[in-house]
Amino acid sequence: MGAAVAFEGVVALLDRFPALAGVDLSVAAGEMVCLRGPNGAGKSTLLRACAGLVPVRGTRADVLGFDLTADRRSVRRHVGLLGHRAPLYGDLRVDDQVRHCAELHTAAPAEVTAAVERFGIGGRLGAVAIRRLSEGQQRRVALACLTIARPRLWLLDEPHAGLDSSNRDALDDLLAGAVEAGATVMFATHEEGRTGVATARQVLLTGGRVVEGSSAPPTPPAPSTIGPKRRRG
Predict the structure, then answer these.
(1) Taking 60 as the threshold, does the pLDDT of residue 162 lie above it?
(2) C-alpha to C-alpha distance for 230 and 207, rounded to whole angstroms
(3) Yes or no: domain 3-212 corresponds to CATH 3.40.50.300
(4) Exposed, middle or buried by CB within 10 Å (0-12, 13-18, 19+), for 230?
(5) For 16, which of 40, 76, 93, 178 is 20 to 30 Å away at the CA?
(6) What pLDDT was estimated at residue 1?
(7) Angle at 213 between CA 208 and CA 218, to 5 degrees
(8) Residue 201, Cβ neighbours under 10 Å: how many?
């Protein structure tokens, strides 16, 4: 299926500070990757770089076939990023926010209903302004909108933060379903014991570099179409 992310020697400067200091990373299409590392290791910057939000340079910086060193804007319509703050409009009601997302991505009504039910943001909550929601509630709305958007590449920074146990389980199921549908998932977390965390390939960052798990697993060979030879009698 090819590489969804192919970075070689990627550098990103934030106020002249090398937040990424020569990242080498390959993520296969349809793979789930968990980014690990201490605070300041570069996990958030790496996710933002993959979303085309941070200028980068390097030997190679390709995401979904787009060269980020030449044009980092074109990739944005194909990725979905959920950072520490939910990308929502504070003055909109929950149902208006969801409706806006559905119209933007031409989502079918059934998809919208399923996303709303999955994260429990319907009913009375639908009439509440985003700015009046708790952090966890805003996260649930953002996850529902991300589900509706159906990105090819999911990028999530501490996605379980602010969620209760049932919604953490719903998120794990959502990410597993996205991968089964052919999407690629990258997330950074300090969370332990989650199914999605345990099954994802672990990539460790330190000091703006990938120090462990940089290479995607090899693609298995295609099954042979040649049957066993018949023995002559």
Answers:
(1) yes
(2) 59
(3) yes
(4) exposed
(5) 76
(6) 56
(7) 135
(8) 15
Q: How far is CA 67 from the centre of its chain?
A: 19
pTM (2 d.p.):
0.87
Count, in order, helices (H) and strands (E) of the chain.
6, 10
Inter-residue long-range contacts of 74-79, CB under 8 Å, 24+ positions, other chains counted: 75/51, 76/51, 76/52, 78/151, 78/152, 78/153, 79/50, 79/51, 79/52, 79/151, 79/152, 79/153, 79/154, 79/155
Would you state the pLDDT for residue 221?
52
**Contact indicator for 20, 45 with CB cutoff of 8 Å:** yes
Residue with token string 């995401």: 63
Q: What is the mean pLDDT of residues 52-63?
A: 96
Give the residue carrying structure tokens 């672990």.
Answer: 202
Ranges of each domain in the chain: 3-212
CA 199 to each of CA 58, 94, 124, 220: distance values in angstroms, whole numbers, following the listed order: 30, 32, 36, 18
Give the Cα-Cα-Cα angle 142, 145, 150 (nearest 5 degrees): 130
Over 179-197, what HEC string results? Answer: HHCCCEEEEECCCCCCHHH
Please give the average per-residue pLDDT across 56-81, as a whole number.
Answer: 96
Query: What is the signed CA dihedral for 197, 203, 209, 215, rounded to 10 degrees?
Result: -150
Q: How far is the C-alpha of 211 from the C-alpha of 67, rounded, in Å?
A: 23
